[in-house]
Write a structure and sequence with these properties.
alpha+beta, 2 domains, four-stranded antiparallel beta sheet, seven-stranded mixed beta sheet, 14% strand, disordered C terminus, elongated
Amino acid sequence: MFAALAPKLFDMGWRGLIPVNGKRPALSGWPRYNTQPNTPKELRLWASTMPDANIGLCAGHGVVMVDLDHTNEAVAAQVRELAGEILGRTSLVRVGCWPKTLRVYGCGPGVIKSRKFRGLSTEIFGTSGQCVIYGTHADTGRPYEWIDKTPLDVPPGDLPTLDAAQIDRFISRVHQTLEPACGDSGATQKPQSKFSGQFGSGSATLARIRQDRSNGLVTALKMIKAAAVGERHTTAVEVTFALAVAGWRDDQIETLREPFLRRFETGAERYDEDRRFTAMIDGARAKIGPDAETAARAVYHHRWSRWR
């Protein structure tokens, strides 16, 4: 991996490239590459001696990496949406072990220091540290993936930029979002959205959808289209659950997928939310059981298998 891609990345303007074993740098004294550009001669040496190593990108050199290390899918989706809203969109979003993601930006005016926010499962790589950008994930054994474009598509000079004030606002919002769900241990758990506990028969959304059975999908579509930027995901969760409770089939609920995904601007966001939409339906069915058609089909197949 290193021998094949590192020289191409260097030619595109990426600096601070180092060989990595799993997630650990393979070089002693590697932190100097946070400030010191590596040379073509060094790359050739590493490529010849460690051709299959992963490729790490050292922070610095005008690049900032935002590592969102949340394992709870609901939490991860909320934080990704906050990142898009406050930090801005970037076409470079890497996945190693879903739903964790790494977002890559350029550094705007001033200095963005590296900081780790353990209670928030968020880390900023601005002046120190490194992240793997190509290779095989040490835990999953699968290749790292880029959701939209890759560093081979986008030179660092073309990245959208961040400043320290944006980072501060983002961390503040993440803290506000996750704080109600964090216990004394500081472990991040699933946050309680404003819709929590509203999926019963008294839910306002459920009442609106049940009000006119023939137009329930139309009502749901209007709610998805009208949701504010910060409420798109949670609105879709409530609508999906309400439709399931009201008796709509999964294939009918599926018709909302494309309109919902069109609410998101980048391929990375749509990729994330496409997976989340499937999880929404699965989550609803896990709570209330399958729709009538699916249940009937399961009974039929069970009887047929017994007859055979």
